[in-house]
Amino acid sequence: MTLTPMETTVPRSASGADYAELRRTIIAAGLLKRSYVFYLFRSATCFALLGLAIALLFLLPASFGWTVLATLMLGFSVVQVALIGHDAGHLEVFRESRKNWALGQLCWTLTVGVGFWYWNDRHNRHHGRTNDVDEDPDIQGSGLLAPNFTEHEGDASHGWRRILRYQPVLILLALLSLDFVFRVEGTLFALRRLRGARRCFETALLLLNVLLWTTLMTILSWRGLGIFLGSSAVASLYLTAIIAPNHKGMPVWAKGAKLSFLERQVLSSRNVTSHPVWDYLFGGLNYQIEHHLFPTMPRVHFKRARNIVKPFCAAHGLHYEEVDPVTSYRMVYTAYRRLRQTLV
User: Fold this and answer.
1) Mean pLDDT by 10 residues, the chain (344 residues)
2) Strand partners, 323
C-alpha cells in the first residue's frame, strides 16, 4: 500500500467561517497574548544549558566518556536554543517583528550556524502549503529524509533516490548530516537570495559561528573536531526526532486540491500526547495541530488551546490525530516502509 495524494475528501462544513469562529474563541481565552516571562525564563535556561555544555568541554577530563557526555549536552542544548529561534521566527515572542527577527538570528544564525532567513523562508512556506506535493519544501526537498512520497513520485524516482531500495542505512547517514546540510543551504541562501544590509549581517553572523567553532577546534585540536562532528550529529538526530512525527505519514495533497486553511492544517498534522516531559523535549512542537492553526501563539498556551481545538474538530467532523511518542515513530517507520515498497 502506498500513500497517494488526496483530493478534497473532507467535510465541506470545515470552512473559513469555522476557522474564524475558532480563532475568536482562542482570542477570547487570551491565548494569543505574548508571554514575556515564559520566554525570558526559557531563553535564559536554554542559553545557560548551552554555556554549561561548553564549559564542561574544558572542565571535565579529556577522556572519551566525558567528551561524549559533553558532546551530547552540546548537541541537545543547541536544538533547544534553535526552538527559541523557531518561536521568534513565528513572531511568538515579541510584538515587534524586528525584535523577533533579532532573537531568531541570535539563536539560528549565530548559535546554531544555520541562516535564520533561510530557515524562516523555508519554514513559513511549509506552514502555508502543508503537505502539498508541489509546494511544501519539506516534501519537495526532503530527498532521503522524508517518507511522504506519493505513489507517482515513488514510481518515477531515478538515480540516487533509488538507492533506498538497497541501502536503508543511508537514511541514518542523511539524518546525521541534517545540521550540515542546513548550514550549507543557509549560507547559499544568504549569498544568493538576500540583499543589502540583511545579507551583510547574516553573512557576518554565519562567519562568526564558523570562527567560534574554528577557535574551539584550534584549542582542543582533533578532540575539538570530534566534538563538532558529534554535536552536529546529535543535533541532527534530535531535530529529526521532534519534527518527523508532525506530518510524516499524514495525508499529502494533490495539486489544486481545494482545502480550507482549517482542513489543511488539522488533517495534515499529528499531535504527540501532552505530557510535561514531551512538552519540554519537543519544545511545544508536540502540539503540532494548534501550532499550525495559530503559528503566532506562544508555545506556553498550546496545552490550553488543545482543550479548545480538539472538541471543536470533533464537532465539525475533522479527524484530530493524537498519539503517544512511540506510536508516532512507529507510524513514521511504517510510512518509510511504504516508500521502500514503492521503489522495489
Assistant:
1) 42 71 97 97 97 95 94 97 97 97 98 96 90 79 44 46 53 77 94 96 98 95 94 94 89 80 93 95 96 97 98 94 94 76 59
2) 272
Taking Cα atoms as reference points, which of 54, 55, 62, 111 lies closest to residue 88?
111
Beta strands in the chain, from DSSP E residues, in sequence order? 271-272, 322-323
Distance between CA atoms of residues 9 and 12, nearest Å: 9
Cβ neighbourhood burial of 40 (10 Å; 0-12, 13-18, 19+): exposed
- Are 231 and 131 in contact, with CB atoms under 8 Å apart? no
The x, y and z cell numbers of residue 270, run together, are: 499529528
pTM: 0.88
The three three-digit cell numbers of residue 150, written as one number: 506519493
Three-point CA angle 168, 244, 334, nearest 5°? 55
